[in-house]
Amino acid sequence: MEFPSLEGIRVFERGWLSSNQVLIPAAAGESGALLIDSGHGLHSEQTVSLLRAELQGQGLRAVLNTHLHSDHCGGNARLQRAFGAEVWVPEGEAALARHWEEAALSHALSGQYLPRFKVQRSVAAGEIVEAGGLAWELLAAPGHDPHALMLFERERGLLISGDALWERGHAVVFPELVGESGFEEALWTLETIEHLPVRCVVPGHGRAFTDVATSLRHARECLIRWQRDPFMHARHALRVLVKYHLMEVGREPVAATLIWAAGVPLLRRMWERFAPAGVASPASWCEQVLGELLGRGLARRVGDEVLDTA
Ligand SMILES: [Zn+2]
């Protein structure tokens, strides 16, 4: 087996719009399987099919979200309906999600799609969650998202890292885009990982990997570059947000993309802080970045429309 740490555990590796899902089947005496993250709302039908095939009649006890970005909790509502699963979310955002304070939740700030779900339980760093006959430690993973959690199973050395550690590079550090601290926290999270006996990582996006030291080095280099040049980080973040939007809509008139950009609260705040001099509005900054995506083949233009490319 390629990853002995993953024995009995099923990883659904999805594209970049949906996060991966990790399914931990129930051990004897447990009331159902536990799923870590539920992917994007637009893919939730497929998520349900994948799970039905894998569960083979076993119940789904709960979905635990590493953090509440729309690509990690978009399937929650559908899975609640399909399987009667509970939803467990990180303590830091539990109250916002319980009352669905949309204006403060990241999907609305970023102009993204997220079906509303119900929160049954909040979980916090330091807790142990029993699943699959294993003890999963919940660890704080601030940086990319201030409230994010990771799961670590010590006997197997298995880390489910969410977006705190990828095989290469580092996820956008969202707090920094609105003038809050995040780079230091992200570096702290990498240090936490470095001090754990990790043998295998299942990240939120991309394949599982075992060369943790190399990934930590790449992530650190990336963060240090951004720390030195936060404008570069912000521009990268804008490219990521626009590309994500295109993945959500598939294709639309360029004018619709610019109207979207004008209405996204996070883009306005990023523009106020980081836009180059002479860029008159969030929409015109978006237009520039769209040009970059087209130039790199990450989007395609046909007449007045822009199309996402895989
Ligand atoms: Zn995320």
List descriptors:
single chain; 310 residues; alpha/beta; Metallo-beta-lactamase, Chain A; Arc Repressor Mutant, subunit A; 2 domains; six-stranded mixed sheet; five-stranded mixed sheet; 12 helices; globular; binds zinc ion; beta-lactamase
Summed over residues and divided by their number, the pLDDT gives a mean of 96
What is the helix/strand order? Answer: EEEHEHHEHHEEEEEHHEHHEHHHEE
Q: Sheet bearing the most strands, described?
A: 6 strands, mixed
The shape is globular
Are there runs of 5+ residues with pLDDT below 50, and where? none
The radius of gyration over CA amounts to 19 Å
Under CATH, the homologous superfamily of the largest domain reads Ribonuclease Z/Hydroxyacylglutathione hydrolase-like
Secondary-structure content class:
alpha/beta
Bound molecules: zinc ion
CA-to-CA gap between the ends? Answer: 30 Å
| Strands in their spatial order, largest beta sheet | 1-2-3-4-5-6
CATH topology of the largest domain: Metallo-beta-lactamase, Chain A
Helix proportion range = 25-40%
What CATH architecture of the largest domain would you give?
Answer: 4-Layer Sandwich
- Overall number of structural domains: 2
Just give the CATH class of the largest domain.
Alpha Beta
Strand content: 15-25%
Q: How many strands in all? A: 14
EC number: 3.5.2.6
Family: Belongs to the metallo-beta-lactamase superfamily. Class-B beta-lactamase family.
Enzyme class: hydrolase
Pfam families: Lactamase_B
